[in-house]
Amino acid sequence: MELQQDPTLLWFIGLYALLMIGIGVFMSKKVSGTEDFVLAGKSLGPFVLMGTLLATWTGSGSISGGETSMAFSYGIIPSFMLMVPTLFGIIMLYIVAPKIRAFGKYTVSGILEAKYGKSARNIASVIIILAYVGIVSYQMKGFGFILNLTTGMTVETGTMIGAGLIIFLAMIGGLRSVSQTDALSGFLMVGGLLITVPTIFIIAGGWGEIVQNVPESHMSNTGGLSTIQLLGYLLPSLFLLLGDQNMYQRLASSKSDQSSKKAQIGWLIAMIVISPAISLIAFASRSLFPGIDPGMALMATTTVMPVAIGGILLAAAASFIITTGNSYLLSAATNLTYDIYRNYINPKASDEKQLRITKGFIVLLGILAFVIITYFPSVLAVQMYAYTVYGAGITPAVLAVFFWKRVTAAGGISSMLAGVTSTLVWEVVLQKPFDLNSVVIAVPVAILFLIIVTLSTERHSSDLSKSA
């Protein structure tokens, strides 16, 4: 089937953008200080919290990479498998959430400092900013891609519009406004996907017709990938989610532990609906549009559906991309303010000053994200890189804070350094040997350093105490 762009779909994007800006401006008037801006005054109920968890996690990584690219490039079963790490990660966060709230920190770096010292906080801040700016950048590019594919707007123009919306919505009201737009976007996406799945299957001629039009390997368990290559796609999202500062901040912003638990159960159920729906739509797209870019598989379907349904899906996808982008941008700016500016530049800064500085950092990091996206060949490439930098550099060390009392400062810090270094060497210096994503190397290296260095330094400390 020939792909035909439909400029009328821009109306749906325009209406969505106006609605988000209106909500952002309205909620910004309720921001009274930095805790309001960063943690929404710890006032989020289960409904809004569920929506913001859902919308923050499912962005361009799923719409233009993740399940979409996997279903198109390797088949339906590998794409379904991408749901498993997310569900496992949500269950783990459900267990850890009360501990996260008990720490009462604005950033993951603050949690790490409490266990490992100031050096750990500094290293973590750099890792988080490095990873989160990458995540924000591919949200911007993903927005540009979907506007180009569906409406004919150039990728460059669409990316600039996406960057502007992401930066503005993050800056105008922080989490106080972002959480509200996230919640609306989350439920819009669930509805859009539920409508789209049966519609696109009818247009594609049904399951039998779709299967006949895809490569035979697309119906196998691994889609032609080796087991270790498949793990290279499954593990990054798991290790990002388990230590994701964005999720930690949202859980810390809930009204109570009970609200947090209800929200996470709702998030789990929503992901069981959303993730397979994205996979099925992209798989049908593989049958209809075999020659398109894999990352555009989901969005291509908007051009062959009735305008109303296609427009709803387009607006829903755009909403997820924008909300994920502004959430990660806000989180990265928070690190710059609380871990660097307040600690080293102006420790006596007033609350009002910190709020202004955070907004300034949002703009600066947003511009940086817009600049660096030009250096990555695809959304999936930068997604895997950013996830692994964070997942290997932060997650083993932060999980040890909650689950391994014996872990030492040396063990935590060495794990963080080893995780990031091995990721950069594998991705940048060695250029991904054997076509393996760096997660299969970097995460085991980070965990080994955590264990070995902890045991050796723990033993050393014990020997010193005995000799004394």
From TrEMBL:
A Pfam family of this chain: SSF
Topology term for the membrane: Multi-pass membrane protein
Top-level taxon: Bacteria
Localization of this protein: Membrane
Any one Gene Ontology cellular component term annotated for this protein: plasma membrane
Keywords tagged on the record: Membrane, Transmembrane, Transmembrane helix, Transport
GO molecular function: transmembrane transporter activity
Keyword Transport: yes
Transmembrane segments: 6-27, 39-59, 71-96, 123-140, 160-179, 186-207, 227-244, 265-284, 296-322, 360-378, 384-404, 411-430, 436-456
Gene3D superfamilies: Sodium/glucose cotransporter
Record-stated family: Belongs to the sodium:solute symporter (SSF) (TC 2.A.21) family.
The protein's name: Sodium:proline symporter
Upper classification of the organism: Bacteria, Bacillati, Bacillota, Bacilli, Bacillales
